[in-house]
Amino acid sequence: MISISSNLNLMIKAAEKASKILIRDFGELEKLQVLKKGPRDFATKTDRQVEKILIEELTRSKKNYSFLTEETGSINNKDKENIWIIDPIDGTTNFLHGIPHFAICIALKSKKEIISGLIFDPIKDEMFFAEKDKGAFLNNQRLRVSNKKYLDECLFSSNQEGLKFSNLNMRCTGSAALDLAYVASGRLDGFFHNKIKIWDIAAGALMVKEAGGIVNNSNGLNANNINIKASSGAINDKMLENLVNF
After folding, report:
1. In terms of domains, do 97 and 173 share one?
2. Strand partners, 226
């Protein structure tokens, strides 16, 4: 039986409740062709509803914690050393095109350090989570990064700019959070992305570390535009050599 903190338990319950809106609205996307309202407006509304539920649920038990969210921005409460970092839908473009690859992301930053992270893919019912010094898990199964040693055996992910830059075996999935969760689980061997937001990678970066991987970020997790490279330890040096100009 996995022992998790009260904070992580709260995060899991909040994500599960908010996911009901996400699943419902994803099922409604096929009807958008007969609506005057466009899919992007629909997705934006869902983003805000999911975020609202997450904030409400997390606030119930931790009334003084502050927030940093994609939709609302900063919410400064009494406790400014403990901050919930939220992305209600990471992979919004996938969502609005009916592609079932997106996730709810929550991380807890305490005294400038990410100590808990959760990435929930509601369509596949995959709950990735991690806590500092306690490991990373997928639906209660312990995660470990890949142990491949040669780049030509590996699969990497990035955004469109990364795809253009690299000659590695690449994918662009449209969800940075799930990419990092997949690195942590060994499905992907590495991930790299420049100028990305903290709510996209806070939870996933912790997962990679707790699954035995390495995360290289040039300007820390306090910046809005983060340059991140993450992989298993077995191929990290080789990946960085390949990305020396990225």
Report:
1. no
2. 196
> Are both 99 and 208 inside the same structural domain?
no
Residue 123 lies in a domain: yes
Q: Tell me the angle at which helices 6-28 and 39-61 cross, rounded to the nearest 10 degrees.
A: 160
d(CA 234, CA 146): 8
Cα dihedral 62/68/71/75 (nearest 10) = 60
How far is it, in rounded angstroms, from Cα 153 to Cα 4?
35
Residue with tokens 């038990």: 61
The pLDDT tens digits of the residues spanning 18-53 come to: 999 999 989 887 665 434 445 555 567 888 999 999
Positive or negative, the Cα torsion across 225, 67, 23, 136?
positive
Q: How far apart are CA 213 and CA 179, in angstroms?
A: 13
State how many domains the chain has.
2
173 and 179 Cβ atoms separated by less than 8 Å: yes
Buried b (16+ CB within 10 A) or exposed e, 49-67: bbbbbbbebbbeebeebbb
The residue range of the domain holding 174 is 151-242
CA dist 84 and 54 (Å) reads: 10
pTM confidence score: 0.93
Segment 146-167, tens digit of pLDDT: 999 999 999 999 998 888 877 8
> Beta-strand (E) ranges in the chain?
65-69, 73-75, 79-90, 103-110, 113-121, 126-131, 135-138, 141-142, 156-157, 170-171, 190-196, 213-217, 226-232
Pair 10, 57: CB distance under 8 Å: yes
* 169, 73: one domain: no
